[in-house]
Amino acid sequence: MRQPKEKSRYFTFLLYEDSAPKNYLELLESLNIPMAISPWHDLDIKTEKLTPEEQKLRDQGQVIYKKKHRHAIYIAANPVTSDAVRRRLQRLFADYTNKPVVSSVQIIKTTVADTYAYLTHESKEAIRQKKHIYDSKDIVLLSNFDLVRYQVLDVEMKEDILNKILDVVYVNELENIIELRQYFAVCDDIEAMFGVSDIRQLNKIIRENTGIIRLYLDGNYQNHQKRIDNGDR
């Protein structure tokens, strides 16, 4: 029996300059699908599948670059197969060119955040491979693409962030949620301290763990009241 094809909401694909119509961004926007499009990758070094001529030039010491292309992240509204995404993109460009505009439509196997970092070669793997880093200012976001919305924290990451929040409450003797929010507001670097890039992610973890956070806040309040009763403010 044939196995059902894997479905997902999160995909990536390549788009090549030499086959894309001039209005490709407008066409992609018309799908009303959140997407993030990388800068043009024009300094990616080609090391595999060299033509005989390219191999000859490489042997002579020349650097061979890949075809100019862009990487894209595609966020489907509902789980679909990569074939479904490929067909939809092919239909989109069919009236404008008979060339294959997109290729390598694949389900994202890591995280959207890691794939987003790869758009400019700032992911850990790309940095390890010493790939050319592109300017993040040249990333194009379509249809309200919001990276934070697609970041999924695993159980271990959530536990680590919660422990850091509890440490903040304990060390700073915070007594209520307003004081905690004020702490976040003046924090110089949320990402460096808590490992998340947006206050909304912290708020979500707080909502999921209000019980234990309240215990810490109440504990600080009770300790403060005891010091007042003992004449020590």
Q: How would you sum up this structure, described in words?
A:
The chain has 233 residues and is α+β, with helices and mostly antiparallel strands. The chain has two domains: 8-150, Replication Protein E1, Chain: A; 155-229, Arc Repressor Mutant, subunit A, CATH 1.10.10. It contains ten helices and five strands; from the N terminus they run βαβαβαβααβααααα. It has a five-stranded antiparallel β-sheet, sandwiched between helices. The termini are far apart. GO terms for molecular function: DNA binding; DNA topoisomerase activity. Residues 4-147 form the Plasmid replication protein origin binding domain. Pfam families: Rep_OBD (PF01719). One of its GO terms (cellular component) is extrachromosomal circular DNA. This is Replication protein.
List keywords for this structure.
233 residues, Replication Protein E1, Chain: A, five-stranded antiparallel sheet, 5 strands, 43% helix, 14% strand, elongated, Replication protein, Plasmid_rep_OBD, DNA binding, DNA topoisomerase activity
